[in-house]
Every structure is written in structure tokens, then in C-alpha cells.
Input
Amino acid sequence: MSAFDEVFDFVVVGSGGGSMCAGLFMRSESQRVLILEKTALIGGTTARSGGVMWIPNNPFMKRDGIEDSFESASRYLDSVLGDQKDAPGSSRERRRTYLTEAPRMVEFLGSQGVELTRVAEWPDYYDERPGGSVAGRTVVAELFDANELGAWKDKLRPSFIRAPVPATLEELMELPALKRSWRVKLLLLRLVARKVMARITGKDWVAGGAALQGRMLQAALRTGVEIRTDSPVSRLVVDNGAVTGVVTVKDGRPWRVGARLGVLVNAGGFAHNQRMRDRYQPGISVKWTMAAPGDTGEMIEEMERHGAVLAQMQERVGTQVTLPPGAEDSEAKPTAQGITAAPHAILVDQSGVRYMNEGGSYMAYCKAMLERNKTIPAVPSWAVLDNQYMRNYMLAGTMAGSAKPRRWFDEGYLKKADSIEALARQLNIEPATLRATVDRFNSFVAQNRDDDFHRGARAYDRWLGDPCNKPSETLGSIAQPPFYAVPVLPGDVGTYGGVVTDEHARVLRADGSVIPGLYATGVSTASVMGGAYPGAGSSVGPTFVWGYVAAKHAIERRN
Ligand SMILES: Cc1cc2nc3c(=O)[nH]c(=O)nc-3n(C[C@H](O)[C@H](O)[C@H](O)COP(=O)(O)OP(=O)(O)OC[C@H]3O[C@@H](n4cnc5c(N)ncnc54)[C@H](O)[C@@H]3O)c2cc1C
Output
């Protein structure tokens, strides 16, 4: 039996989405919990994220009179994920457990005082499939006043949502239509009023993942979960094949912590580890990711060292990005999702040909880009835009209609020309090819139907577009000079493969046996979603749910 410096009932490695959820459950059963976070900040990529969780059949849908059921969600998941024989993380048992436990997890958090709600409309990414929901199945945190954390406030990792006015993700997503919608102008007035009130009342509203993890941190601290930052875990302690604790650092020296009921690894993926990327995801640069910096994969390798089997390591939550000069090194990389899904914009490969529905899930978009690249150079691809686009929509963080930085032109990021042919020459594309692509797309706009890729046929594509653009929210001609182009890369918000876990979140060996005492959740694991992304929140949802499931199982095993 190993000697420990300290012993807890349950130890969590990493302060990701599932960590505090598991911690809260353990505390509700009066168990002592320790969360060890490697970095100086709490919350992981989950805090940096939009904080959206995909929770079918959730209590807020019931509250709002939106129909859903286990059966409907199950039909949808099976239709989107298919058999996925090479994705053991997405087994039938795990899908069933996810759909059963996800709404229970949300109820549990509510009982712990974590204030959540739903986004009014965020369609599933394949809403046209059986069981798909147009209203959507998203759960998010209410805005959170970070000042309520007191001295812990500075330890909360900030969200990527940094707006000049305090706003939810849902509100922010409406703002691009500001110039064209009175309703949005009124919304902006409300947000400005909120900012003034916050100043007067001393509130510091945070949104998205920071609101979610801020609320979780508050609840965790209130119930007595112990959380330590700057505490990397380097090793698992294994006795007779069972995980009994971890080795971390305290006061500059190795510190062994025992875990009576188990260790939960919630240490993220390997988004920032170029060696692992090259091995499992060749061709993908760590410079394209938006994951938080602690996402370096060492705990996945440590679990593998103790016999855990890895799967789905090629999967990522792809997100199309466009990187103006200087953006490669910045934390918040501009997404290109809203660009090519908006009217007056298309995506073409380096031969000037369109090759996908520019709406659709970001994961599917990036997969399509990489697949195309196997036969025709498509990394980067080009977003081709016209003056109507530039007048009406944001580009890489700049406002609609605003002058673009001189540097963008000088360094060859933003191309501009008076004709499609001249633009093509700047992109080293055969002018006649780009002309034909644009003419064909414009003919689809005229008939309001995309015969090639059906962009706009599903609710999600239209939701990504511009509600004020008629008759189509997403189809608009590329006809008004000058014409523009920016490069689009298959970035990501994190990796999506890791150790294989069962329906209790226990880590498995290659022969299917359980490694006793070892649980894992989040993107340290092979996702229950396999190689698809069914809806907004398909990463944060699972990290919470499997953290909850792991804690429940550890308690049941104790009894
Ligand atoms: C801008 C952005 C927006 C996004 N929006 C959404 C969204 O709205 N919904 C959604 O589902 N997904 C979203 N994603 C993706 C999602 O945020 C992540 O995939 C998910 O949060 C990963 O959660 P996790 O719990 O697995 O890991 P994380 O939340 O990343 O937590 C892992 C933690 O473990 C720590 N750690 C790592 N190694 C060690 C170690 N050895 N010892 C101790 N600690 C360690 C890390 O520092 C980190 O704090 C978004 C991502 C980004 C970047």
C-alpha cells in the first residue's frame, strides 16, 4: 500500500466541466473532494467556451412547452452518429446513459443553486434528421456576477466572450443585425442600460463558459470542495492494478494524494501538443486551436501508460477560423463560421470550386475541408465575398462597413479586386473557374435553392445566416464590386478522442476490463458523440454529464 501525504475520498485531475459537477455530487454525499488544477486559472477550456451544453429533454424545454423525449433524442443521436463501429466511446450503452443522465444532471445542478436556462432557439446541427429539434436542446448558465467569487474571482479563467457591454451569448449573436433591425437596436439599448446599472451596483457580469464555471466554482466552494491551482498531476498511483491516488506538487515538492473512492481525470485533450497532433492528426497545427493552454495531453498518455486503451484520437471539434496578421498568436481566433454562412459569401478550394454546404456543423465543415484537401488543395480555402457582404456583416472581429486594417492588405491576408477574374488572379485561381463558380452560385440565389449543396434547406443553416436577408437568410448574390477574399483554415476548439470509458465513466483496457479506481470525463476521453457533433454543446454537455455519472458510480460502489 502506497504512503500518501494526504487522503481524500475523491480526487479530480483538472478543473474542467465535469470536475466541479462531480465534486458537488460528492459533497452532497458528504465525501471529501480535492480538485487539482495545473494552471493558475480554474475552469479549463470550458470556462473559455460559450458554455453551451447539449442536453436533450431538459427541464427548461419542459418549462417552455417544447416537446422532447428520450425516444426522440435517441432516434436523433442514432441517425446522426450511425453505427460508429470504430468509435467505442459512442457505444449504445453510453448513448443511452448520456440521454438518461443529462437531464438528471441539470436537475441536480439546479438543486445545488446553479442557475441555468436554455437558449430560445439554437437548432440541432442536423435538425432535418429524425428526432432533430429546431428549437434546440441547449442549456446555458445565466449571466454571473464574478464579484460574488470574492478573492477567487481572479482565479476564474475568462470566457472568449468579451464584449463592451455585458451580454449573454444569445444576445451577442443578435448584434450583427444591429444596423438593419429595430429590435436589435432596442436590445443594444437594454445592454447599455445593463452596463450602467452594473457600474452603479458594482457588478461584474461574465457570460458563457465563465458564467457556467463561475457558478460551478461558487457552488463548489460553498459546499466545501477543495480546489488547488498550480497543482499539476504528473502521475497516477497504482496499487495491484487499481488507481489509488495521484502525484502532484505542493510547496515545490512531489505530493502524493490518496483517493479512497477513485480518481476522476478531467484534464482536457491534446490540442496544444504538436507531437501528439502529428501522431494522431497529421497536418493539423496547434496554432489553429482555441483551446485553453493547459490542453497538453499528458494525462491521456499517463492513463495509457497504465493500460487504458485510446480511441477516436483523430477526432477534433473542428471550427473554421480565419487568421488575420497577429491572430495566430492570440487566444481568441476569429471564427469563419458566420462569414461563409452569411449571404453574399461562399467558400472555394484553391482551384476556385465550391465543395460544401457552408452552413452546417463546424465539425463537419472542417472535416469536409480536410477531405477535399486530399484531392484538391483546400487548406486554406478562400471565403469569397462581395461589397454587399462587407457593408452588412462583420469580418474577423471588425464591424460591418468599417475600414479594414491596412496591414491586412499589405500582408496579403485580405484580397480585394474590382472583378471576380481579377480576384481569381490574386488567389492563383483560373479566372474562368471562379467566374463559373460565382455565376452558378448566383443562379441558385436567383431561384432561392442551392441545387449543389442544399445550403439553407435546414433550419440550422438559416439560423447561421441573417434573419433580415430576404427571401433567404443564407443565400445572397456575389455580384457587387469590389470583391474580396480571406483564407479559411480548419481550426478547432479542442480534440475529441482519448481513453475509452464505459457507461459508468470507468476507464477501460483494450480487453474491455475496467481499471479499478480510474474514471475519466470530457475531452480526455473518446467522446460519446463519436465523430459527429449533433448540436451546440456536444462537448461541454458530455464533460458535465460523465463527471456526474462517475461521481454517482463511485458513491454506489462505496455503498
Ligand atoms: C472559444 C470556444 C468556445 C467553445 N464553445 C463551446 C460551447 O459553447 N459548447 C461546447 O460544448 N463546447 C464548446 N467549446 C469546446 C469545449 O469548451 C471543450 O471541448 C470542453 O470545454 C472541454 O472540457 P473538458 O472538461 O474536457 O476540459 P477543460 O475544460 O479544458 O478542462 C481541463 C483542465 O485540466 C487541466 N489539466 C490538464 N492537465 C492537467 C494535469 N496534468 N494536472 C492538473 N490539471 C490538468 C487544464 O489546465 C484544464 O484546466 C468551445 C471551445 C472554445 C475554445
Notes: Residues 266 and 521 are 5 Å apart (CA to CA). The mean pLDDT is 95. The first strand starts at residue 6 and ends at 13.
